[in-house]
């Protein structure tokens, strides 16, 4: 988003992580409590990402004043990848401050998440579990034709409702609906149950269909993350008319736009893991029982892996970033088939004077996206 590119460098040293030594090292004794850090990160995480990139390994953050065991922060791209690949680190389903995001990067196999949660793979009800193929780590965005068709039709319906309007907020009127449709289609839920599925993803309670616990957690997190990522993607394109025109002319670019959105404006910026045993990460060791906060968002801003990371560039070469999303291919399915109808709406542009702004810590993205239309 444009907000992230402006002024991020200037806030790095004075953003509140504590004094920085001349070498750029971050003294662990000066790192504030995690609760205090979260408030600052909610405003703009990029200065803190950059500080973590200068660290040679995990950074210890103390617990809160009322107790807590603290946590290790891992923010460099290579270190995050190493943590995700470490079999001694498992998803911490008991961490209450990341609801729906315990399978955050979509890189942890379902077996590892199930082991961490005590999940046996059984459905919460008897009978066939819809969407079992989409529960695996091998889910792909090239969905079966009927799933892609449902998402595409929903995109046309939502875009058609906006086409005769003079203005709208795309977050509640488009971004909050399309991911629920895509998730429902992937899980085999009838279209008429979309509203029930959307409510369940946002508020919890009884699921509208029987799902294994691990899949239910991932599905709820994916729906929320996709909605925020979709808002970020649209906000970015609407602030860059040349890129918007390119995607309109060549819809195949949506895949690259989605990947760059997850890197530059991650909707699920972190993933909490817990060490089942003592593990060694690049630059340091983590004791058994300790938690590791993998900052997926920081990994995507690591200049060692992504030169000039503040530049939003869907043509960026190099390795694919760690996807900061619980179910990245489900998100890609949503935008690949459901977004083109909206981009074709006549006169679509940001409302005069409005600038999209991403907020949040657990799930991050714009909460409003005001546009004018040609209706």
Could you tell me the number of beta strands?
A: 12
Number of helices: 15
On the 0 to 100 scale, the average pLDDT is 76
Instruction: Give the H and E element order.
Output: HHHEEHEHHEHHHHHHEEEEHHHEEEE
Shape annotation: globular
Fraction of residues in H or I helices: 40-55%
* Widest β-sheet, arrangement of strands: 1-2-8-5-3
What is the structure about, briefly put?
This protein is of the alpha+beta class.
Describe the structure.
By secondary structure, this protein is an alpha+beta fold. It has helices spanning 2-5, 34-43, 46-53, 77-85, 110-117, 145-163, 170-175, 178-187, 194-203, 213-238, 241-249, 254-264, 296-300, 328-338, 340-343; strands at 59-61, 71-74, 89-91, 167-169, 270-275, 279-281, 284-286, 291-295, 349-350, 358-359, 365-366, 370-372. The strands form 4 sheets. The protein has a 5-stranded mixed β-sheet with strand order 1-2-8-5-3. Strands 4-12-9 form a 3-stranded antiparallel β-sheet. Strands 6-7 form a two-stranded antiparallel sheet. Strand 6 (279-281) and strand 7 (284-286) form a beta hairpin. Helix 10 (213-238) crosses helix 14 (328-338). The longest helix has 26 residues, at 213-238. Residues 1-31 and 95-140 have low confidence and may be disordered.
